[in-house]
Amino acid sequence: MSHAPFGRRELTVTGIDELGAYRVLRAADDGPHPEPGQFAMLAAVERWGAGEDDRPYVLRAFSVARRRDGESHFLIEDVGPGTRRLCELRAGDRLWALGPLGRGFVAPSDGRRALLVGGGVGIAPLAILQDTLQGEGAAGATVLLGFRDGTRAEGAALLSGARVATDDGSVGHRGFVTELLAAELDEDPHAVVYACGPAGMLEGVRALCERRDVPAQLALEAGMACGFGACFGCVVPKRGGGYLRVCVDGPVVDAAELERVDEHAGAPA
Predict the structure, then answer these.
(1) What's the topology of domain 113-265?
(2) For the whole model, what pTM was predicted?
(3) Euclidean distance between the first and final Cα of the chain, in Å?
(4) What's the fold here for domain 9-101?
């Protein structure tokens, strides 16, 4: 498992690409190579704050969506002042990054196939997972992605060969991505499910896989302030009692470790 040293590093933004409702922020990065599912804490070097006293925003945690040709890629949606500032960055701007952090996905074993299930901006860690599985010569993973509407469904281009569901039926299957997952497991349950997305979707995946005795790994995206497990701001309840810190015990956790997925532990839809 690759982990960043205790210290942020300064990256130079190489570009930002539009992908429907999302932006792909690219930055030159010679830091540790991330494993699929790991994340970084990001902040703009300049104007990272607001108000009369220029109070800084809290650093934002983002899954690494891709590492390619010396660049790290991050998928961002403008949902507030902090993410809006990151969406404003352009080539040549500077970016603070702390990462890679956390625990990532574990490759399939026992001949199981990989089922990648994502929702909204939570599709990001599935992209680097797909890249890694392909690079290791694994059989092609099945990719199932769910979005609120057609504009957000354009984000499916981040991965290859994805089947899409939308809440409004504007693209692909009308309904939830968990409906596509259930159909896939009906055909062949000998699989490992890898999922990241809104809390409701993750809970649906967790419950579905539990009923069918299918192993699942869930990438949680609870709000974080430190990334190193010091602040306990990202804890989620653990099956049988106690808590997991998403930033160090996750963000990827075995679904069997959870009684449920809390509402604060998912990515935006």
Answers:
(1) Rossmann fold (3.40.50)
(2) 0.93
(3) 29
(4) Elongation Factor Tu (Ef-tu); domain 3 (2.40.30)
